[in-house]
UniProtKB/TrEMBL annotation, chain A:
Name by which UniProt lists this protein: Simple sugar transport system permease protein
Subcellular location: Cell membrane
GO molecular function: transmembrane transporter activity
Keywords: Cell membrane, Membrane, Sugar transport, Transmembrane, Transmembrane helix, Transport
Originating species: Halorubrum trapanicum
Domain of life, per lineage: Archaea
TM segment ranges: 31-51, 120-139, 145-163, 170-191, 203-222, 256-275, 306-326, 338-363, 383-401
Record carries keyword Ribonucleoprotein: no
Main location: membrane
Any one of the GO CC terms: plasma membrane
Pfam families: BPD_transp_2
From TrEMBL, chain B:
InterPro entries in UniProt: ABC_transp_permease
One Pfam family this sequence matches: BPD_transp_2
The protein's name: Simple sugar transport system permease protein
PANTHER family reported for this sequence: GUANOSINE ABC TRANSPORTER PERMEASE PROTEIN NUPQ (PTHR43370:SF1), SUGAR ABC TRANSPORTER INTEGRAL MEMBRANE PROTEIN-RELATED (PTHR43370)
Transmembrane domains' residue ranges: 46-63, 75-98, 104-126, 133-156, 168-187, 221-243, 255-281, 293-315
Organism name: Halorubrum trapanicum
Amino acid sequence: MSDSDPDTDRSPSVLARLVAPFVDRSVAERLVISVAAIFLSILVGFAIVLVSGRIAECSTAAWTLPFTGIGFCYDPVEVYVVLFNGALGYPFAVGDPGLFNPGWSPFNLSFGLTLSETTLLIFTGLSVAVAFRAGLFNIGTQGQLVVGALATALSVLALVPLLPAGRVAGVVLIVVGTVAGAVAGGLWGAIPGALKAYADANEVITTIMLNFVAANVAYVLVLEVFRAEGSSVVATGYVPEYAQLRPWLFPASSDFALIALLVGVGFIGALYYFVEHTSLGYDLRTSGVQAAAAEYGGVNAKLTTVRAMTLSGALGGVGGAVWVLMSEGRWMASIPDLGFDGITVSILAGNNPIGVLPAAFLFGILKGGALEIGFRTDVPTELVAVLRGLIILFVAMPEFFRMIGRYAGVGGGGVAASTEPDETGGDGGETDA
Amino acid sequence: MRNPLSLIVGTVGVLALLGILGLAFPESVAGDLAGIVFSTSTATSTARLAAPIVLAGLGGIFAEKSGVINIGLEGLLIISAFVSVYAASVVEIGSTVFGVPALAVGFLAGIAASTLLSAVFAVVCIEFKADQIIAGLAIWLIALGLAPFMSTVFFGGVNTPNLGASVGWRYSAALVLLATVGSWWLLNQTAFGKHLRAAGENPKALDTVGVSVSKVRYAGVLLSGVLSGVGGSALALSIGQFVGSGETMVQGKGFIAIVVYLFGNYNPIGALGAGTLFAGLQALQTRLQQLGYGIPSSLVETIPYVAVIVVLAFVGRTQIPEAAGEHYETEE
């Protein structure tokens, strides 16, 4: 970003300039910060891979620092090449002549897995984002997903014997199961909402505690009552195949149904409309930015809080439903950390529903790529969990990037001049911890 | 409920009632419960479990009193728990470094790691004016990823092997008491304590008398790192192992610590009382499982978490420092 001369002090960075005509400055700034945060966390991840590769034991060095002869067990370049290239199913020919692999098709297994993660992250990301817009930190999407997923699995399994097997029954079961997931997740989300509204209990803590409660209660319910006979793990029986969201175009083992992604995109549009263009959405936003002003303007802040948390929980529950109906085919005890990933997705998206799509895709690439890292390198796949935290940390410190911007003489004026209240800010969340 | 005294009186009252019931009807549930509550093993495991909760809670008091809400205590506990075990295993039990035994080296390394991570948090919050809640969540999630990552790098799995040696519960209890008294003294009897409270309540006044608000806040956050480091190391070394699966062995103790100091109304003595109460619940839970009432263990495990929610609902809005969560711009 050092290519522009100091005279262009007031112009935002290159990327911001490209998108500026389409969006207002604060969105552009946020976009720049998100991209920079990803870049920076990848850089820090690079260092972490190097350092751990220095301490880990191996017979031959995978990578040698140029000019020094110091060997490292892990090759960070390889890790990231595998991560990004692998997540897409190796479209790029690395090391071979030519840029692209001639045999590559977009409908490959790895890309399917990446899109499957993307789909799930859209729902959990939206869940966190909706709460954020109302000034609430819903860290409980994970628990809401666990509860919603169980409700989906149980309701579908209960209805299966009542309906004749077939495509029509499948559609009915999928719809009923998703609604059940949404209702259960919504109710689970309403608990911290009500506690926040009527007892002033900080939602960060209550949602985290409820995550533990949800995981344990769901585990016990399945272990004691709903466990499938002969199952070696704690899991319900499988939902019949006709009631699952089956992969289309992509390989069957990719667990990716295009229809679920399309529904997710539909949810994004609906939520954007709800937040930006309905009066309920307006209440939600204003109580997020300025709770006192919203109350003064006639908004029932307490009810809005409960509503926002219920909606947020319902979205987490739908995420759980999709996880059961598309990914796993049943409820099982080892549910991935999709709720926590949703926090990163939402923060990366600037808590904007539209932004959730690219953010979920990007994080889906990280998650899909992590699987490839596990297959092809010795680096633990937990690396992505580290990146998840780092991205949040860097997005949370816009001032850092503004400083760099000022230092480099780029983007300083435009970016630093924006003094509007930070909407990501949890005024609601931090004044009453 | 806000008065720590009422908490202590209430706890003693419940315990006394339980003792009487247990003595009167030794065959009943109350009898069993009394047997558990007053058994030595419950007391020792309470002391063990109280260390991370109370120490992180004390740390949280320093950070929040200075005006920085540190919601990343959980992350500090996780990182120190892992690093303490890692360092002790590198030194190897039985050997020493400069005459310092392996477990003690582990302890110091754990404290150093936690302090380092809290320094990152401090810079991000104070220098770069990050939203404290989001930055705190990031610290937690970074540690939640980093500790199992490093464990897999060094030991080939998210759980470390057992060291084969551990720190006794008496050390944990002594550390907790020492830290509680020390924190009380530092907060209430020293000029630093006065500055700390001013940085959280009225930073402008502090600035006016010529004390740097950000320096005081750095000190507050770093202290939370040191204390959490002691707590996390004590937790892992009292078992001799780091468990990194799921939410790691810390299992939300850092978040419970926040409730503990809110419940104790930012008073170290109150935090000690509330922390012991929650640790007691967790210890009780373990014993109840061993006794087997036919209640599934996972259900019993939720008791402390439900208790936290109930307590939080009753405590509600506490006397949070006026300027906590806000950035302070020096006016020059």
